Amino acid sequence: MKTWHTYLFIAGLALTTLMACEKDGDQLTLTTPQPTRLTTSATSVSLTSATATNEALRLSWSPANYGFNAAVNYTVQLDKKGGNFEAPVNLSAGTSTSLSVTGANLNQNLLRLGLAPNNASQVDVRVMAAITRPGNDPSNRVYSAPTTLSVTPYLVLISYPSIYVPGAYQGWAPDKAPAIASVKDNKVYEGYIYFQSPSEFKFTSGRDWNGTNYGAGTANKLSAAGAAGNLSVPSGGYYLIRADLNALTFSATPTTWAVIGAATPKGWDADTPMAFDPATNTWQVTLDLKADEFKFRANSAWDLNFGDGDSKTNVNPDGLLDYNGDNIKVPSAGRYLIRMNLSNPGNYTYSLTKQ
Questions:
Q1: What residue intervals traverse the membrane (predicted)?
Q2: Please, which pLDDT band fits residue 55 given cuts at 50, 70 and 90?
Q3: Same fold, 38-152 and 257-354
Q4: In this structure, how many other beta carbons lie within 10 angstroms of the beta carbon of residue 172?
Q5: Neighbours of 310 (CB within 10 A)
Q6: Pick from 294, 205, 189: which is nearest to 244 by CA?
Q7: Domains of the chain, residue spans
């Protein structure tokens, strides 16, 4: 009899549980969710480093309606105009129905999209609403209609550990001397310097002569001795200067620069030379370009070449030049002024300005 009562109890408990689950199931049945309506504080945003900490954009939206009191999480998505949000950047807003974005945050995400600094571009923006269900079922996601913004990001320059290159070409003044930088912070430095004529120089650790100074030791070697001689370049020109303070070595390589690629008149078969402008410290050329690709290279060889971004290491194009980087894309055919600026070590830049 006791066993029979036990069976009846278990059966009753199972029936009660099943009824409760069915009831709970009724409560969790979703109606077709109603999308949110997105509004933005501006339709055109031009960003600058001076206002990086200020609010650049505020987005707000109506709550998504799932037919019951759900905890809805919202994500703002940005993508290049026409990108169909296939590879967006996502800004989490949690359960809030608004999001304030600072200039620095917005700029970082625009650069992640590969937008060119200092140029106006269009981006599509939308809000994704979702509730959490077992398995994170994507069927509960709902999106606002996208809106298009005009945005202009700025270039982010990084300050790297540096040493300085005073010399006869600039009056032996460390406080005004060009710098060369250690991008990896490993005491290996490089930078590009223009010498008007043959000149002597030294390396200094600071903006004066009071720190460690490096001059000529034995052949192609550096010496920190006070009596070390001056280093030198044999002729004027635009030099790649490298110094390794671990091995106490240096090199000075003269360079002339050109563009090459399918976008240029000579294609990939030959260089189109650029001219150096000492007044702006930039290399320049004005060309009729095709809507195609090109690169910068030195001395009609590939030993020194620049692209923008590196797909092999997941570095997006950002307006900063990368050694052996990806080809640079010309957005549309036309006549362009091409500039390349190698004067800020570690932050080599370029620009395309349609004429």
A1: none
A2: very high
A3: yes
A4: 15
A5: 15
A6: 189
A7: 38-152, 162-255, 257-354
pLDDT in tens, 280-317: 999 999 999 999 999 999 999 999 999 998 888 877 78
For residue 337, what are the contacts with CB-CB under 8 A and spacing of at least 6? 284, 285, 286, 351, 352, 353, 355
| Nearest CA-CA partner of 99 in 133, 68, 73, 69 | 73
Residue with tokens 């959490």: 132
Displacement of CA 54 from its chain's centroid (Å) = 20
Report d(CA 186, CA 73) in Å as an integer: 44
With 0-12 CB in 10 A as exposed, 13-18 as middle and 19+ as buried, what is 25? Answer: exposed
Residue (of 296, 187, 300, 298) closest to 253 by Cα position: 298
Helix, coil or strand: residue 49: helix
The CATH number assigned to the domain with range 257-354 reads 2.60.40
162-255 is classed in which CATH architecture? Answer: Sandwich (2.60)
User: Helix or strand or coil: residue 201?
Assistant: strand
* Phi, psi at 140, each rounded to 5°: -90, 0
Whole-prediction pTM value? Answer: 0.69
Q: Cβ atoms within 10 A of the Cβ of 287, count?
A: 21
d(C-alpha 281, C-alpha 292), whole Å? 27
Q: Using the CB atoms, write b or e for 93-120: b if 16+ within 10 Å.
A: beeebebebbbbbbbebbbebbbbbeee
> Secondary structure of 99-119 in the HEC alphabet?
EEEEHHHHHHHHHHCCCCCCC
